[in-house]
Amino acid sequence: MIKYNRFILKNGLRVLVHEDPSTPMAVMNILYDVGARDEDEDQTGFAHLFEHLMFGGSVNIPQYDKPLQLVGGENNAFTSNDITNYYITLPAVNIETAFWLESDRMLSLAFSEKSLEVQRNVVCEEFKQRYLNQPYGDVWLKLRPLAYKKHPYRWATIGKELSHIENAKIEDVKDFFKKHYNPQSAILVVAGNVETEEIKRLAEHWFEPIPKGVEYKRNLPVEPEQLEERREIIHSDVPTNSIYMAFHMPARTEKGYYIADLISDLLSQGSSSRLYRRLLKEQEIFSEIHAYITGSIDAGLFIIEGKPLPNVSIETAEAAIWDELEKMKSEFVLDYELEKVKNKVESTMVFSEMSILNKAMNLSYFELLGNAQEVNTEVERYLAVSVEDIRNMSTEIFKKDNSSTLIYLAQDHA
Amino acid sequence: MLNRINPPAFHPIESVNIISPESLKLSNGSNLFMFNAGEQELVRIQWVFENAAFKANAPIINSALSAMLLEGTSKYTSAQIAEKVDFYGAYLFPEYNYDQTTLNLVTLTKYLDKLLPFVLEVLNDAIFPQQELDTYKRNSKQSLKISLEKNDYLARRQFNNLLFGDSNYGYIQKESDFDELNRDDLKALFKQQIVPANCTIFVSGKISNETLNYISNTINNGWVGSTEAPTFARPVFEAVLAQKVVIEREKAVQSAIRIGQLSIPRAHPDFPALQVLNTTLGGYFGSRLMMNIREDKGYTYGIGSGLGSLKHAAFFTISSEVGTAVCADTLKEIEFEINRLRTEKISEEELTLVKNYLLGSMLGSLEDVFSHTDKFKQAYFSGLTLDYFDYYTQQVKEITPKGLLDLATEYLDFSTMVQVVVGKI
């Protein structure tokens, strides 16, 4: 149970405070309601590049990191297809430094040409390190456009290609800031050894003078229902064959999301799960096998990925996965099995409440979804899922016509 | 009028308090430390074993022992063990490092009595079934094959091999090593190593007296095994000659770099001050390597340096992955930054920044009761007590620019370092 207080500043900034006196530290988490899904298709990777530029100095403060490190703080950020999230951890006695730094960069950036040039290079190196210079590193660059044809989830957060990042101009950066970085599109959470009254005073002092900006109205294309099986085969010099299957599944706030999430747990959570137990241990088909969901806000993907053993053909491997999916459709899972994955959801929730950063991020995210209070009732939505729900949802998503399959064939096996 | 130019006043960190454990000597021969804090109704128990020396020509058996610990006992199959742990929403997992093997149990306190006797069953009687061993061998070979395509992995193991030779720390695994593994060896090693006399137990969480009594009694009565500690290897490492190894990878778009040398362990009196020097060079986002090579030149997504403290050795290392076209230039800049530490005194301003950052990060790393335990373990296994952290804080606060210059001269010498590049140069 995460207790919190909530108030809204005159400029529309939502502020949540979670008091936890058991730590000497505090966290400031700022979530901006912008991600790769808000990008233009000819300028992908921009939300993430922009995240890097947020550290290149703001209008009144030439360097972001140094003053924070000087007061014993650390920070980082991440960008997803849905959101951009910035966080600071620092000794609670120095929380005002976080207010000073974050409010100035919400007010305006320095928009330095030098910073843009350097960060373009840094992001290109990140692109190479994570997506090009690793075996299977390009999987999301291939799988997303296979599964999505209209919705902007068809490109990865890093962007479609290096050239989109290389071509970014300072004017684009300014426009992006104006469009997405204002108090109305942000959620501020402060957690740790703090008191709400003091945080309220600081928030009003540092953030309230920031102009509210123009509201961004999101209007994304809806992904049409997939009506045919999709498949792509890549002959590549990867070390072993590999298979990835993607199925469309319900959006984050739908009941079906929780059902699909539990299906992924039944198939792949822990070493008692079905795919691990049956396909890796018993039938000796895979050396690795996983199922998970992308967890995105708009309708996301249910993914199964596996690496067959060298003596197993890709056809046999794929058929074995389908066999297990068919069982999910034709038979009820055991009550015991469902109880098992629900127990794991419950305990994981308790474990995650040990960290003030986790708590702050969860509050921000649920506030974005519509109501921070629901972070405390999330478990109930998992507990409400029945074995009938599991079978019905499996029937709905595990269809050939709803599948996109990507296969890497190692060249010496091809 | 709101002043956005000047930073708000701030408070320096005076001290760092680490929770003192309660300690018990169990009659079965193991030591137990208990850390009680936190609000969540959960408990973590860790059984830490020093890795025993086994046959000289069986370098990967210790890691195989760890990986296969939960794969079956006389009473329960691998599948039954996995079911039980998952059903109670718990985590039970072995962890292996060069010096130790740890079995971790993390569970809601309400299920402790369902799980603890079961874990003891594993500690008493793991049997390493042949079929499970075959699976382990097969899958390990395949995952090694994948690792061998990663430049960063190749660079790290080459670097370790140059510093530590074919010892446990530096051995280069081959696929065929997995073929040598057999049940009899695993069972023999298990009998020597996974015993109370070779175990230190750490219990952390919100622990009532009743819970502690339950844990210590259950472990005392339920876990038997040799009261004799096994034998341990005691390798000695000599400084190696400077050398540069380049592994060409034709299709690389980035090169992985490792540079470093042997260094001093945590228990050495200079260690905290050397940590300040390391942090200045490459230990945080604002470090000189990051500022120069990432934030000024954009050559890399990340570059860092670190001090590694092992049981029988210690080392300093720099690592990065950089565009192949700028690899040679990166090496020059690394040399430049190391030499600058030896020739130029750090400014008071930069030194204050590093000190404050380090102390804040120490405070921040003590976020929950588990991290207090982990800090204690760091000191304990280096032969130190909790007083070490007072010493550490004091040393960090007191080190001067002159002191850092002397440390750089003594401990960081690019001309004697080992360099590994995997990719293209």
TrEMBL record, chain A:
Family classification: Belongs to the peptidase M16 family.
Gene3D superfamilies: Metalloenzyme, LuxS/M16 peptidase-like (3.30.830.10)
Lineage: Bacteria, Pseudomonadati, Bacteroidota, Sphingobacteriia, Sphingobacteriales
Location of the Peptidase M16 C-terminal domain: 170-344
Peptidase M16 N-terminal domain ranges (all copies): 14-129
InterPro entries: Metalloenz_LuxS/M16, Pept_M16_N, Peptidase_M16, Peptidase_M16_C
One GO biological process term: proteolysis
Keyword Oxidoreductase assigned: no
Species in which this protein is naturally found: Albibacterium bauzanense
A single GO molecular function term of this UniProt record: metal ion binding
Domain of life: Bacteria
The protein's name in its UniProt record: Putative Zn-dependent peptidase
Keywords (A to Z) from UniProt: Hydrolase, Metalloprotease, Protease, Zinc
TrEMBL record, chain B:
UniProt-recorded name of the protein: Putative Zn-dependent peptidase
Peptidase M16 C-terminal domain residues: 181-357
Protein origin, superkingdom: Bacteria
InterPro entries reported for this sequence: Metalloenz_LuxS/M16, MPP/UQCRC_Complex, Peptidase_M16_C
Lineage: Bacteria, Pseudomonadati, Bacteroidota, Sphingobacteriia, Sphingobacteriales
Pfam families: Peptidase_M16_C
GO terms assigned for molecular function: metal ion binding
